[in-house]
Write a structure and sequence with these properties.
The chain is an alpha+beta fold. It has helices spanning 4-14, 54-67, 95-107, 109-127, 183-197, 224-227, and strands at residues 20-26, 31-39, 42-46, 76-81, 87-92, 133-135, 141-143, 149-156, 162-170, 173-176, 209-214, 228-231.
């Protein structure tokens, strides 16, 4: 990688007379980089400013993404730099890290579902004049809430097709919304179903129906079980 030479120079500015180990962990969501200098055979962490190694991070992340198109995929990198500026690189695939990344993502998937559903509902109802409006004191048009809470049910049938129902409640009155889902959203639900029932089957109970209760705002992370239910029908 071209940017690694810049990284070596950055490290040398922080560490004058010690060898350095850099450990990088990557997944589809983020890249995590840890720096250690070796003092008296111990690993002592230090932290350059992120902007100083941004080119390296960007290039490595692009390389990580392109690695999935080949047989050389990796999600962990070990770089060792000696006091003379010479370095070695080792690219590895950590299956345990991959599984943990999948589990971490699956456990907060409902947040993404809730956010995207709120957005799709607003866009659809706005386009179909279903959102109540009023003018503010400056004469500007404001959109009001058309629902207070909702229940979103997603069921994967025996043919692996997504069947869903959207029920919205306003002032105690329920209505079913015939909302078309975006293709990327359907793919996201089906992928979540596949991952949790296969790669994560040791950690996740089998399911084919996800029921999400939305309060028309973000669901607290510590109250997942109150708002999300996975069942097998």
């Amino acid at each position: 990688m071209e940017s690694i030479n810049k990284l070596v120079e950055v490290v040398k500015d922080y560490v004058k007379n010690n060898n350095v180990i850099i450990i990088v962990k990557l997944n589809k969501e983020k890249i995590s980089t840890r720096f250690y200098e070796i003092k008296n055979d111990e690993e002592v962490p230090f932290r350059p400013k992120p902007k100083e190694y941004r080119d390296f991070s960007d290039e490595l992340y692009n390389l990580y993404n392109s690695s999935f198109l080949t047989n050389d995929r990796f999600n962990s990198v070990l770089i060792e730099i000696n006091i003379n500026g010479q370095y070695s690189e080792k690219y590895m695939w950590d299956s345990q890290q991959e599984k943990q990344d999948l589990l971490d993502g699956a456990e907060v998937f409902y947040q993404w579902v809730n956010e995207r559903m709120m957005s799709m509902i607003f866009e659809y109802e706005k386009d179909n004049d279903l959102v109540p409006t009023e003018y503010d004191s400056d004469g500007d048009l404001e959109y009001l809430s058309s629902w207070d809470s909702g229940v979103f049910t997603f069921h994967i049938d025996k043919n692996n097709n997504l069947v869903y129902k959207v029920v919205l409640t306003k002032d105690g009155k329920e209505r079913t919304l015939d909302l078309p889902l975006r293709d990327y959203f359907v793919e996201g639900i089906l992928d979540h179903y596949k991952v949790t029932n296969n790669e994560l089957s040791d950690d996740w109970k089998p399911w084919n129906t996800m029921i999400l209760k939305s309060l028309h705002y973000d669901i607290p992370y510590d109250k997942r079980e109150e708002f999300v239910n996975y069942i097998l029908e």
